[in-house]
């Protein structure tokens, strides 16, 4: 699985949405992405890429696109 | 009148997300103005609440002018909202402007502060008892039309008591972390409006940078949280955050893990702050007990002692009062803040006091030799999901009525409901159905397929036989 596929899967499984909804998706953009969903998303990303995400980055990860920037700080290349 | 807002004149009452400040004088004028638009006088109004100035101003105005609000989450499932509207037939709706278009059979009366006053087709459909001030849900999320009937006396008594034991004054600046339609969130608003403090109103959550930016920029002095809030705070390494303005953290809405209670109590003791664990129910307006911050570490795991003006007792299975420490029984509370009772239909709004100041909490508890109370379990079948009470029998009914032919039993632990069903093809669908209906993240539900629901000869579900599926 490519990094991008893993990234997408972390979103679709923790937020229980379809991959087609991810483009442009922001925090609270779907009911499942609430604070509880955010916790499970962070856990899913940490597990998928075997990283520990800092608090500032947890709070910064406010959209599907923004998450890519955040992960690049941890050496995860998504393109 | 409950609050004399104009008394605090130029004090800042509210700071919104953008940093805009509203003085008590402004809030007083706006709230009076909103209430004056309700032409049918003392009547019933549904408020779709958000942590916004319009929502707050309407609530304060209605309560101050004997208009009886029902406070609901603005994002309440629309099918459930429709059912509540049919059941109670309110005269008016107070809704965010962005939602007013949904209510096509109502007429717009007035708009202010991004909220709209809508007139329904009903006028005085049901008589309102003269003492009735406010209606709140206990577990609105399961679609039950059950409201708690609170009086003006209840609200004022609870405010005065909370203000006394938390020693609140006009220098406080709480930041909202809870919904205002939720009894605990509302009690924070009620008490701080009473003392002339400034409330930082935000819809942002702990998981957003903007929340913490607002916290720091507007110098929040306190916040409240349910157990799940504290779990998230630990995940956010809260103990390492630099929050110089913070003075007090309160916790209610369910039992915090004793270990977590201890960690927050230690943090508070080390940093010169107060951590106050409390206990309450909507049936008692909001609060029944608190653990004084000085005892937070020594008595961690305890809900403390009854609030000023209240009294606890423990009643054993035979109905006798327990006088010995460490003996478990049902927790009973007495005080002026015990509400009048429930309403389940429009006619109930005319009922008077049914509980007479004495509440059987449905929680099992004991006290230690120093008189501090500990909640040990529950008598009734409900769970707390992220701080909100969910009745398990009602959840079963919800599944059974939507899925004919599927047998269902609900059990579980706080923050995780286990739903047992007899149709293996429907587990995922039912999980999503419950999450959507009850408006909780779906991780709160685990749906498991079993061949048959265990029952006794009389047909009663044997819930203790289901425990093996989820108890470690």
Question: What does this protein structure show overall?
Answer:
The complex is a heterodimer of chains A (79) and B (472). With 79 residues, chain A is mostly helical. Chain A has one domain: Non-ribosomal Peptide Synthetase Peptidyl Carrier Protein, Chain A (Orthogonal Bundle). Chain A is built from 4 helices and no strands. The longest helix of chain A has 15 residues. The mean pLDDT of chain B is 95. Chain B is 25% helix and 26% strand. An 8-stranded mixed sheet of chain B has the order 6-7-5-3-4-8-9-18. Chain B has a domain of 88 residues: GMP Synthetase, Chain A, domain 3 (2-Layer Sandwich), CATH 3.30.300. The interface between A and B is medium-sized, with 17 and 24 residues.
Number of domains of chain A: 1
Low-confidence stretches of chain A: none
Strand content of chain A: under 5%
Give the mean pLDDT of chain A: 93
Task: Label the structural class of chain A.
Answer: mainly alpha
Count the E strands of chain B: 25
Helix content of chain A: 40-55%
Major β-sheet profile of chain B: 8 strands, mixed
Q: What order do the strands of the largest sheet of chain B run in, or round the barrel if closed?
A: 6-7-5-3-4-8-9-18
Largest sheet of chain A: none
Distance between the termini of chain A: 13 Å
Fraction of residues in helix of chain B:
25-40%
- Rough outline of chain B: globular
Poorly predicted sequence stretches spanning 5 or more consecutive residues of chain B = none
Span between termini of chain B: 52 Å
The averaged pLDDT of chain B comes out at 95
* Sequence of secondary-structure elements of chain A: HHHH
Under the CATH scheme, the architecture of chain A is Orthogonal Bundle
Number of strands of chain A: 0
């Amino acid at each position: 699985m490519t990094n991008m596929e893993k990234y997408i899967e972390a979103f679709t499984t923790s937020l229980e949405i379809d991959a087609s909804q991810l483009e442009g998706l922001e925090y609270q953009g779907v009911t499942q992405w609430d604070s509880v969903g955010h916790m499970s998303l962070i856990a899913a990303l940490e597990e998928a890429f075997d990283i520990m995400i800092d608090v500032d980055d947890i709070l910064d990860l406010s959209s599907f696109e923004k998450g890519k920037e955040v992960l690049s700080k941890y050496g995860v290349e998504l393109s | 009148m409950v609050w004399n807002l104009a008394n605090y004149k130029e004090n800042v009452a509210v700071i919104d997300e953008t940093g805009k400040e509203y003085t008590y004088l402004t809030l007083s004028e706006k709230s009076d103005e909103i209430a004056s638009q309700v032409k049918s006088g003392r009547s019933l109004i549904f408020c779709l609440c958000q942590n916004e100035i319009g929502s707050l101003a309407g609530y304060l105005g209605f309560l101050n002018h004997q208009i009886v609000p029902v406070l609901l989450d603005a994002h309440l499932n629309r099918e459930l909202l429709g059912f509540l509207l049919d059941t109670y037939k309110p005269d008016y709706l107070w809704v965010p402007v962005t939602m007013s278009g949904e209510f096509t059979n109502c007429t717009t009366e007035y708009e202010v502060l991004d909220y709209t006053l809508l007139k329904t087709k009903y006028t005085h459909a049901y008589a309102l008892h003269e003492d009735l001030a406010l209606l709140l849900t206990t577990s609105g999320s399961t679609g039950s039309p059950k409201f708690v009937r609170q009086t003006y006396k209840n609200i004022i008594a609870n405010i005065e008591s909370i203000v006394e034991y938390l020693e609140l004054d006009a220098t406080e600046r709480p930041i909202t972390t809870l919904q205002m339609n939720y009894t605990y969130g509302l009690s924070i608003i009620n008490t701080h409006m009473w003392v002339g403090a400034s409330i930082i109103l935000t819809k942002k959550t702990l998981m957003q940078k903007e929340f913490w930016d607002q916290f720091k920029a507007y110098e929040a002095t306190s916040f409240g949280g349910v157990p799940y809030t504290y779990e998230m705070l630990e995940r956010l390494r809260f103990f390492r955050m630099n929050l110089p303005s913070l003075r007090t953290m309160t916790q209610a809405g369910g039992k915090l893990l004793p270990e977590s209670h201890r960690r927050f109590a230690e943090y508070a003791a080390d940093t010169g702050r107060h951590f106050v664990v409390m206990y309450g129910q909507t049936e008692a307006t909001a609060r029944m007990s608190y653990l004084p911050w000085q005892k937070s570490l020594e008595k961690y795991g305890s809900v403390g002692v009854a609030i000023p003006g209240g009294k606890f007792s423990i009643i054993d299975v035979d109905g006798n009062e327990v006088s010995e420490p460490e003996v478990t029984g049902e927790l009973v509370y007495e005080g002026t803040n015990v509400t009048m009772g429930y309403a389940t239909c429009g006619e109930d709004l005319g009922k008077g006091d049914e509980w007479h100041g004495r509440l059987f909490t449905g929680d099992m508890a004991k006290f230690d030799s120093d008189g501090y109370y500990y909640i040990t379990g529950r008598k009734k079948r409900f769970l707390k999901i992220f701080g909100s009470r969910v009745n398990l029998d009602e959840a079963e009914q919800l599944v059974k009525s939507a899925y004919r032919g599927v047998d269902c039993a609900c059990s579980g632990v706080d923050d995780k409901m286990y739903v047992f069903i007899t149709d293996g093809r429907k587990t995922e669908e039912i999980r999503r159905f419950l999450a959507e209906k009850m408006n909780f993240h779906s991780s709160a539900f685990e749906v498991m397929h079993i061949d048959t629901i265990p029952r006794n000869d009389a047909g009663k579900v044997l819930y203790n036989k289901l425990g093996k599926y989820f108890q470690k």
